[in-house]
TrEMBL record, chains A, B:
Region (Disordered): 47-72
Domain FAD-binding PCMH-type: 118-296
PROSITE patterns: FAD_PCMH
Protein's name in the database: Alkyldihydroxyacetonephosphate synthase
Keyword annotations: FAD, Flavoprotein
Organism: Kribbella orskensis
Length: 546, 546
């Protein structure tokens, strides 16, 4: 089975992944959790619909859940505006649909979902079917001051789907699901924003092409979301980041359409594509993207390499990143993550010792490249573990996040965060973030396990991805908030960026402001004022409201 | 001799290149020009200083040339402001210095220079010595509403040094000429903006590194100019464009400092580095740049390949650009350029027939890569011409623009322009631009020779670079303006970008506005208003004043 055979998965609200293929925690893992002080039962899961029916009081600040017009701020007039533009069948205000579009999939999101917390509930969910309908919708919403939040795959883990307004509507882009055009000479494909990652691969596979973008959210995420959040996939060493694949895009804004990208590269002013990429719906809704595509790989192979330590492995993968040859996939787990091996739940708590690297090859002549890479890694102290660990990783490449839900069920707190920096800064960055997480959670009586890996490399630096597991306290949302704040401060102090591929949303907004500085924030807000003069687009996401 | 051995060249005003090594037109070329109707003598060169001394009237709209306070709008008070910030020794108002900072090196610039046209003369030239001095200067100029234009190498060919104000000062960055830091682990170097290309290579060579950026302006241009204009060098296939080398930068603006780039790549919002790159001094003065560097190549080799036609060659180089392996240098001349062979003046008018490609390799294991590339090119119909044409190209790689001055001396009009597009658009783009140039110049009684080459390739497209030669009319500035307007319209109609690596300046501004559209222009102006609220930065360059 290859990436293009995976189905489009309809994620379950509040629970990650393909509901048809849940992951169960191995018994050994449950046993291991006890060493962290993890104890069931965690807080019971509350059904907000049931709670509503029972007439239970709402938490302060919540929008009232319920039927079609239950949001007191969302008037019949507003509904009529939307129906006029899109047709009544494409405007939903039933509770189930709204609840299914509430927040994303960060651990705090899942915890709030479990608690039946109906804050962040959109007042309506609308389904435009084309760029022109998105444009008409934005024009109407602008006129009537209806705040909107774009929604495609819904896989945000940074609060990117929870704009800071009591009343807003979610604009679900799933009907924008077409291949608009394919240019086989230029090797570009124009895809609408609502095309899911799996659907994009299936569509392109029919023509013999691949995008090569396989983030861990691949089963749920969409083209528009990839673009709006600067997603980076597991094959980024070979295929690049998503923002590097984009050669053109179309943006609908309350002020009208912006079309960018007449050539792969240009010296005609700033690269405005790079201003829209990562704008997270604050400047407009990306309705289609022109993407560089590649022929489907003739061969694929993944293998494992063992290094005595993370530091030794880091030097080895830096050598490949700087002097080549670059494999398609290049990852390195630290000693702790290697021991746990999240990619292979069956050996959870086992592992091979040292630091495990996964090296993958796609394309043609992979045997030649494998031999060249093997030479570099061996010279750097690596020991080949053969294809076994590589194949295990490949089979589980989208499965690690599935473990989070059963871990939460067991009463564990589990969450991830990531950063990036230049190579010389990485050892300190890793140490400081780990220390901050350990301290912040230990102070709350829940000393954590902190795992780390590198999964995206560049000539001048790399990403660091942390997984944190501890026992839950009574209020795990607050518990994690404290840990996250400490980690964010450590990232800033060590000179890293607040996010390498998870985006800003609301969770990283304050750290982002500090990272780029007040003048740059003001410049971005000025851009927003031009494109969104009434501030209806994703208010409070990425940028503070002013 | 390698690139790092080339000296920093002090360009002569109004005449391109190293004055110590002028190029003479071969007699055969002079003969060949007669077929285009080129006749000497062209307009005599006028010394504006002599003209001034003789008391001759100035052209309308000119600032009066001459001594320290000759610009009637440039007051003693303004001079005192500058001297207070930088010291009197770093504020020059003598005519020779100002004339030496007037305009750049487009053919119209050279023609106006020859005519002694003193419009565009800066009122003063100032020399800050550090970021802090640039910052203090901008703060003072902002307070006193003194318009400024950054000046580093001075090699603009798009009117980038002629802001649309009767009175402005040129900020010459030559004293910002230091290597600030070198991070050998991350392979980054921080260089100040005034470091010339040749100096950057010499500095890095001392440590065993290269930037690998070798545009045709290499002998004159600077790091800050490369960044502000999105320069692309002849080795872009191997080393990338300059904007791809930048991982961080510092910008001084009237509102204060902006520092960008904490990691090679980030998902923290829009990539603001890409907003500053290409901003041509309209948003601030780039004072230093953090650049990705590479080890100096152990081997270098350049060779020629012959294709039956440009179209055949285009398919061949597209194959390399899309499926690899990519050489370091990859260029393809069309049949007309191959016949003329500007890179080798000795065979001007000769040539080998068909379409000549130059393929260069730098780094390690070049023999292996050469063999792989040869396999691809042979399969695509190419015939190896061996190292002869490659070496000839290498030796002349910065010399072609030197020919322009003796050609102008002979009474020829010669100028270049460039664009880029996606592969599928290139044949039409080339045909339409050529047709527009031929028509526009033939209508003026001067049918031209139009030559074209591809010199920068990407997976999804490539650049097209045109050289135009015809006889001059009585007003060659107007003559070229008509031809350029026709070519620009053709580029827009065929979907290309108005410039691949020459930037916008004033010459491309209207085409640029049309290319990105009114909303994007408004967004950029909003950014400018934040950073430069009083509009003192390069007024009218890149963006229209509003």
């Amino acid at each position: 089975m290859t990436e293009s055979d995976l189905p489009v998965v309809q994620l379950t609200p509040g629970r990650w992944g393909d509901p048809a293929h849940p992951v169960e925690l191995p018994a050994a893992a449950v046993e291991a959790l006890k060493h962290l002080g993890v104890r069931r039962p965690a807080a019971p899961v509350v059904d907000p619909a049931v709670r509503r029916t029972a007439g239970e009081g709402e938490p302060a600040g919540d929008a009232a859940p319920g039927g079609s017009t239950d949001d007191p701020e969302f008037t019949l007039a507003a509904r009529e505006v939307l129906e006029k533009v899109l047709g009544a069948e494409h405007v939903k205000t039933d509770f189930e649909t709204r609840w299914g579009h509430t927040r994303g999939y960060s651990t705090p999101d899942l915890l709030r979902h479990r608690a039946g917390d109906t804050s962040d509930l959109p007042a309506a969910v609308v389904y435009p079917g084309s760029h022109d309908e998105v444009q008409a919708l934005l024009t109407a919403c602008d006129e009537h001051r209806i705040a909107i939040s774009p929604y495609a795959g819904g896989t945000s883990v940074v609060g990117g789907l929870a704009p800071q307004r009591a009343t807003f509507i979610a604009v679900d882009l799933r009907r924008l699901n077409r291949l608009v055009s394919l240019d086989e000479i230029s090797r570009t494909a124009t895809l609408e924003a609502g095309v899911r990652g799996t659907a994009a691969e299936a569509i392109l596979a029919e023509h013999g092409y691949t995008l090569g973008h396989f983030p861990q959210s691949y089963e749920g995420a969409s083209i528009g979301g990839y673009a709006a959040t600067r997603s980076s996939g597991q094959s980024s060493a070979g295929y690049g980041r998503f923002d590097q694949m984009v050669v053109g895009l179309t943006l609908a804004t309350p002020r009208g359409k912006v079309e960018l990208g007449r050539a792969p590269m240009s010296a005609a002013g700033p690269d405005l594509r790079q201003l829209v990429l990562g704008s997270e719906g604050a400047f407009g809704i990306i309705t289609s993207v022109v993407l560089r595509i590649r022929p489907r790989p003739a061969e694929r192979s993944f293998e494992g390499w063992k290094f005595a330590s993370f530091d030794e492995g880091l030097t080895a993968i830096r050598r490949l990143a700087q002097d080549g040859p670059l494999p398609t996939v290049l990852r390195l787990s630290d000693e702790a993550e290697t021991a746990i091996n999240l990619a292979d739940p069956d050996v959870l708590g086992g592992g091979t010792g040292g630091a495990l690297a996964i090296v993958g090859f796609e394309g043609t002549r992979t045997a030649v490249r494998r031999a060249e890479v093997a030479e570099v890694l061996t010279a750097a102290g690596g020991e080949s573990l053969g294809k076994g660990p590589g194949e295990t990783w490949r089979q589980g490449r989208y499965r690690a996040p599935y473990l989070r839900d059963p871990l939460l069920d067991e009463g564990a707190l589990v969450e991830t965060l990531e950063t990036a920096g230049f190579w010389s800064s990485l050892p300190t960055l890793k140490a400081k973030v780990t220390e901050a997480l350990v301290t912040a959670l230990s102070e709350q009586g829940t000393p954590p396990l902190v795992l780390c890996h590198v999964s995206h490399v560049y000539e001048t630096g790399a990403s660091l991805y942390f997984t944190v597991i501890s026992a839950q306290t009574d209020d795990a949302v607050v518990q994690w908030r404290k840990a996250k704040a400490a980690a964010s401060q450590a990232i800033a102090a060590a000179g890293g960026t607040i996010t390498h591929h998870h985006a800003v949303g609301t969770d990283h907004r304050d750290a982002y402001i500090a990272e780029i500085g007040p003048l740059a924030v003001e410049a971005l807000q000025a851009v927003k004022h031009v494109l969104d003069p009434n501030g209806i687009l994703n208010p409070g996401i990425l940028l503070p409201e002013d």
